[in-house]
Amino acid sequence: MIVLQKTGYIAEAGRCLVMQANIEGRSVIMVFLDAKGKYSRAADANRIRDWLDKEKLPRRTQTVQKDHD
């Protein structure tokens, strides 16, 4: 799930996108630098969102064995 995204521009890095997502219960920060076009950042964000939705990454689970009497 994408939690936060912010676009920006600086001369050194060009058009940028910073995105925070939760993947398998972990907070992940992604930084996309030097987008080629005005709408490239939005397209990148959509591709990441679609990838996260399609992957449906499995949650890490811990198996607990119980003794039976």
From TrEMBL:
Top-level taxon in the UniProt lineage: Bacteria
SUPFAM superfamilies: beta-lactamase/transpeptidase-like (SSF56601)
Gene3D superfamilies: DD-peptidase/beta-lactamase superfamily
Full protein name: D-alanyl-D-alanine endopeptidase (Penicillin-binding protein 7)
Organism: Noviherbaspirillum saxi
Classification lineage: Bacteria, Pseudomonadati, Pseudomonadota, Betaproteobacteria, Burkholderiales
